[in-house]
Amino acid sequence: MGSQCVTLTKASSRQRRSSFQRLFIWYCIGIVIVTFLITGMLEAIIIAFIDLDKQWATVYYHNLLLQNIVFLIAILLPFIVLVVAILFFAWLMGRKISQPVNELMQAVEKIRQQDLGFTITYQGSNELGELCAAFNELRSELQGSLEREWRKQEEMRTMIATLSHDLRTPVTVIQGHIEGLANTEAGEKRQQRLERYLPVLEASSQRMMRLLNDILLVSSLEEAHFVIQPQPVQLAEALERKAAIYRLQAATHDIAFSYGHTLAHGTELVLLDLHRLEQVLDNLFENALRYTPAHGQIILDCTQQPDQLFFLLRDTGCGIASADLPHVFEKFYRGQAYPGKKARKTAGLGLYTCKLLVEKHGGTIAIHNHPAGGCEVAFRLPLNAAHKN
Predict the structure, then answer these.
(1) Which of 48, 11, 357, 70 is CA-nearest to residue 3?
(2) Predicted TM-score (pTM) of this structure
């Protein structure tokens, strides 16, 4: 197949002449024709003049110098015409190629200065036009590649800064408590401190572990070879179990949790990646729990349609600042979104992870403030269902 493509390419290149080559050939043919016409006309005029004027004919035939002059004119005239034609052709070609060549030279200089914000305007229908178009495509690809590389570098710097900032607090807490225990003599006082410090140390270590797990999950989701692993599951029962867990967690914060659905119970199996779906729901629920005040409410609803699942999670918190709404799904974004309540520090990866997971399923996710107050997140997943008796 590859050799056939090469053969076809060579054949087409042989059949296709350069526009400049065609122009040069036709120009040469024109020069030859014009030269012969001028020479022939000159000789015809001289012969006619000699034949018409007997006195001039006598002088011409008996004057060797005059014969040589006429002969030299007949010989040199084609060369003079040829030289003039070549000079004219060079001038014409210079005008034809000066614009694209100048633009290409300027483009090369801009690239040397790392400036890719330019476009070559020449759009001729010849090889130079094709070269300029190819150069524009190359510039566009290079600019896109560099911008992607710059974004990766910026994300790497942001990730390092986030890790450094978010790990500093738990590490400092752990280090301080360890030093406190080390400076306490063995005995009842040390035992009391140990009992008091252990929950703090455990919470700090869990915070570090959550952050590292979030970073690892996002890194794996951003890989091109990452794929979800859908399996047949009884979704109604799985979501009932998850809702029971959410209800208990919300109760510890004096928050009411309600769950509603239109899923079929019994033997209907839904083909999806339940583990990844639970990760999405967990992230959304933790966000809602974090920013919903005591005596508030969190509502989760799931609607099954013939070709998709539709999830809606709403809280009665303070909502999201309008300036932050367009950016909440961005990586590492942490806005001042919830006035009135001190938010726990996060890595800014929760909603970004939800977006990646939903999109890996082929779905979409959106977030907005509810008119009655609070925040509302809606996402849908394409559905493949299999019925079993």
Answers:
(1) 11
(2) 0.57
Query: Nearest Cα to 239, choosing from 381, 388, 386, 389?
Result: 381
> How many angstroms separate the CA atoms of 369 and 326, rounded?
12
Q: What's the N-to-C CA distance of the chain in angstroms?
A: 50
Please state the domain count of the chain: 3
Measuring CA to CA, how many Å separate 384 from each of 194, 242, 260, 265, 269?
53, 21, 21, 16, 9
Angle (nearest 5°) at CA 351 between 253 and 344: 40
* 199 and 243 in a common domain: no
Considering the domain architecture, whether residues 265 and 363 belong to the same structural domain is answered as yes
What is the extent of the structural domain holding 329?
A: 231-387
Does one domain contain both 247 and 378?
A: yes
The answer to whether the beta carbons of residues 374 and 319 sit under 8 Å apart is: yes
Name which of 172, 189, 190, 173 is nearest 181 in CA terms.
190
Report the candidate in 291, 310, 317, 298 with the shortest Cα–Cα distance to residue 247. Answer: 298
Report which DSSP code applies to 324.
Answer: T
pLDDT, tens digit (0-9, with 9 covering 90-100), for 329-346: 887 777 664 444 444 556
- Choose one of 79, 97, 115: the last residue of a domain: 115
Quick one: tokens of 363? 């779905």
* Residue that finishes a domain, picked among 189, 221, 253: 221
Across-strand partners of 241? none
Cα 330-331-334 angle, rounded to 5 deg: 80
Count of other CB atoms within 10 angstroms of residue 281: 20
Residues paired with 15 in a beta bridge: none
pLDDT tens digits for range 140-162: 888 778 777 777 777 777 667 76
Centroid of chain to Cα 229: 26
